[in-house]
Amino acid sequence: MYPVLRLAKEMLRARSMPPLTPGGTHVSHHICWPIDIDFNLEMNNGRVLTLYDIGRIPLAVRVGLLRIMMKRKWGFAMAGASVRYRRRIRPFERFEVHSRTVARDDKFFYIEQTMWKKGEAASNILYRAAITNKDGIVPTQEVAEAMNDPDWNPSPPDWIKNWIEAEASRPWPPERVDTA
Questions:
Q1: What are the CA-CA distances from residue 169 to residues 5, 106, 143 (Å)?
Q2: Which of 45, 49, 68, 175 is least surrounded, with the fewest CB atoms within 10 Å of its CB?
Q3: How far apart are CA 35 and CA 17, in angstroms?
Q4: How far apart are CA 112 and CA 127, in angstroms?
Q5: Whole-angstrom Cα distance, residue 38 to residue 128?
Q6: Helix/strand/coil (H/E/C) assignment for every residue in the chain
Q7: Phi/psi zone of residue 64: left (φ > 0), alpha (ψ -120 to 50 degrees), beta?
Q8: How far apart are CA 123 and CA 40, in angstroms?
Q9: To the nearest 10°, the Cα dihedral for 141, 145, 149, 150?
Q10: Which residues are CB-contacts of 143 (< 8 A; sequence separation ≥ 6)?
Q11: pTM (two decimals)
Q12: Where are the domains of the chain?
């Protein structure tokens, strides 16, 4: 079940926090509850992704994007992700989610998020996100202009450039392998 109460708490909290610039970092604080764990008694990888969702939405509030999206009837679509898991998060452990938009190209925004516990990175994810309307993907320049920050266009770091290149070489649609 989607943790709606957690999302509501984070949305209320984000509305009372100061606005962020487009590249600013939103930090949210969480606890790993028993409903978050898997049979290994650690946070389930699917729940990790859900909690990253809960970090991105308040980020969109604080940079002013969510208000613009609602006004223009735009959507938010994830177009790719790469995740690394390095440290377990156990029941009742406290952790933070740091969320920030790192770069953009013509079509996509690149959002990096990290879960931190006791000062150590537990997991990290890079998302490729698109703003959409009824006609498809809204160019990032149009989004930046709507946010009154048309010059915000940092160059992605090399590791993100490498990921973008690797994704471009990945076949789509994937090969279908039928088994007997």
A1: 40, 18, 27
A2: 175
A3: 28
A4: 6
A5: 27
A6: CCCHHHHHHHHHHHHCCCCCCCCCEEEEEEECCHHHECCCCCECHHHHHHHHHHHHHHHHHHCCHHHHHHHHCCEEEEEEEEEEECCCCCCCCEEEEEEEEEEECCCCEEEEEEEEECCEEEEEEEEEEEEEECCEECCHHHHHHHCCCCCCCCCCCHHHHHHHHHHHHCCCCCCCCCCC
A7: left
A8: 17
A9: 50
A10: 65, 68, 74, 109, 131
A11: 0.93
A12: 4-169
- What amino acid occupies position 27? V
Quick check: 59 and 126 in contact, CB under 8 A? no
pLDDT in tens, 49-66: 999 999 999 999 999 999
Q: Which residue has the tokens 């690394």?
A: 84
CATH topology for 4-169 is: Thiol Ester Dehydrase; Chain A (3.10.129)
